[in-house]
Amino acid sequence: MSSAPLSDRLHSAARVVIAALGDRHRVLPRWAVTYLLAALDRLSKGAVDLLRKLEAGTYRPRQPGLARRPATAPRAPRPAPAIPFPGFRGIVIDLIGGGRSPINGPSLHDLLQDPALPGYVQACPALARPLRPLCRLVGVDIPEWLRPPPRPRRPRAKPASGASAKRSPPDPTKPSWRLLRAACRADFVSWHWRTNSAPPDILLHNMRHMLSREVIDLLRPHFKFLNAVYP
Length: 231
Description:
By secondary structure, the chain is mainly alpha-helical. The chain has 2 domains: 6-59 and 84-146; 177-229, no CATH class. It is 48% helix and 0% strand. The chain contains 10 helices and no strands. Helix 1 (6-22) runs antiparallel to helix 2 and helix 2 (30-56) crosses helix 6. The radius of gyration is 21 Å and the shape is globular.
């Protein structure tokens, strides 16, 4: 276990991932790289700032304020963001190609093993808010002490009577984390196939739809690395 402060190790781990993602900007869509670089920087900076205050003993929890008065008029719902936060676990590692080019340097997984971190999260619950999405982005399992308390499930909204049950086919010209993950996993499976005499059956079974010619032709104009893998 490193003797460096947790804040410095988290900062270094985030910089390593950000640099690896930046190296892939020539073969990945600009919207994805720009979004993820900004998200990683924002989340890591928020967590590092809180950790430094906790380590220096200058963190002061907010005092509970007075109960808010109910609003006279209901607030208008927020518009959906143009690019939603990616819900796929490990999307950053998929984009970097971590399965074939491991990231060398401090990792978030090692940081979570530090025995001092659970105490910091207990003293400052706000610290867990940036750490959880960071874990999801890089595919690290969230430990129990970092998980939020369970919430009651909301009832699903019933579709309108005239709504179509089938989804429209995705448009590769628009931001889509789903298509981006499919392209990166197809690239990884093809690389794994070429470097091994026989790929694992379970891998092929799970990825067969991503290796179809139709999917590759759909994604080829938008992901340059597929042109080298599927000439």
